[in-house]
Amino acid sequence: MAYEVTNVDKGVPIKSWTLGVPFEDQARQQLRNIASLPFIHKWVAAMPDVHLGKGATIGSVIPTLGAVIPAAVGVDIGCGMMAVKTDLTARDLPDNLAPMRSAIEAAVPHGRSATRSKRDKGAWGELPDTVANAWNRELAERFNRLTDKHGVLKNTNNVNHLGTLGTGNHFIEVCLDENQAVWIMLHSGSRGVGNRIGSHFIELAKKDMQRWFINLPDKDLAYLAEGSDNFNDYIEAVGWAQDYARINRQLMMEKTLAAVAGVLGRPVLGQLQAVNCHHNYVSREHHYGEDVLLTRKGAVSAKEGELGIIPGSMGARSFIVRGLGNAESFCTCSHGAGRVMSRTEAKKRVSVAEHAEATRDVECRKDAAVVDETPSAYKNIESVMAAQDDLVEVIHTLKQVVCVKG
Ligand SMILES: Nc1nc2c(ncn2[C@@H]2O[C@H](COP(=O)(O)O)[C@@H](O)[C@H]2O)c(=O)[nH]1
Ligand SMILES: [Mn+2]
Ligand SMILES: [Mn+2]
């Protein structure tokens, strides 16, 4: 048995794939809070990258019946990863990768829009046909329906933000796999509009709890009950934001491939193998005899044969994995290494020189502003992978040579 079972006395059990990896007491308590809710189906699963989150634990899988917890899905709805294998190999890359990093940074708006208002215009209006068609036909109409009922969602930056990376932990990388093939991998979500949707429904859920005099172990576990208007609207909104996030990643991938092609002066084919997976989301799935709402908060679907992406850190290896369909994890794996240190702690404990040393073989930022993202702020990805070898098998191992941080 590759997992530990705890919380057998109260609520549902917690099954944790955390053998050999750090697992903080605060995260364990947060999981117990979730497990005490009356609408959890079977158990809560914790992945090896588990760590404290807001309301619900990052790296957790929460199957619910008749309710959904908006804060468990989080505010970066649909955050996830996309990776494509290109037709390039290491030999096609120049020795000096600085111009490639600059070209990607110029092609994909990143960082805070407030300080980069001129650049952070998004890619709206110049969408590739496939993406533009998906938006025109579906997303606009669905979004208008949402704003008709929830006016607060109207003035979001969704137009400007489509095709932009975001801040901090979001990144774009050029990587080499075990055969020296070049991959492009990126991490981003639903940007400002997803944040507005998430925050709005978290507040509505809290109001519902007050109205119904429901006491919770943590107010961020406020839920929406199936059948209510808010529940129906949330399901519609969260699905919309998940689709937006997926298209956002596709768009940035196309921009990045074009930027790399521009630097190399040759076309780059990025369709050899492609994976685009959410790691903060909710979906309707069937597990242990019930149709549940399955919330993966910092976790990736790993149904049998399904491909996923598990990134390490800006100085460590990342993995393209194939799901083994382990039912006890609700067919899930980790979404990364997971933080082992808060951002504040990382900034206190790690110097810029240490960060530069930890990323010496990567063309990336080495300044004080990215030290909170330094490799030692994350768990050891090799131990995290070992702890979930019954959930996924590794099909490609990637190591970045360029990393653009948000
Ligand atoms: N390959 C890289 N992996 C990274 C980088 N920064 C963070 N990470 C990993 O991604 C997950 C994403 O977690 P999230 O909760 O922020 O969505 C994180 O756990 C790390 O393992 C990077 O620059 N490159
Ligand atoms: Mn995100
Ligand atoms: Mn993420």
UniProtKB/TrEMBL annotation:
Its cofactor is Mn(2+). Mn(2+) 1 binds at D76, H170. It catalyses: a 3'-end 3'-phospho-ribonucleotide-RNA + a 5'-end dephospho-ribonucleoside-RNA + GTP = a ribonucleotidyl-ribonucleotide-RNA + GMP + diphosphate. Its EC number is 6.5.1.8. Mn(2+) 2 binds at H187, H279. Keywords: GTP-binding, Ligase, Manganese, Metal-binding, Nucleotide-binding, RNA repair. One of its GO terms (biological process) is DNA repair. Binds 2 manganese ions per subunit. The keyword Zinc-finger does not apply. GMP binds at residues 169-173, 279-280, 311-314, 318, 335-338, 405. The active site is at H335 (gmp-histidine intermediate). One of its GO terms (molecular function) is DNA ligase activity. It is an enzyme of class 6 (ligase). InterPro entries: RtcB (IPR001233), RtcB-like (IPR052915), RtcB-like_sf (IPR036025). This is 3'-phosphate/5'-hydroxy nucleic acid ligase.
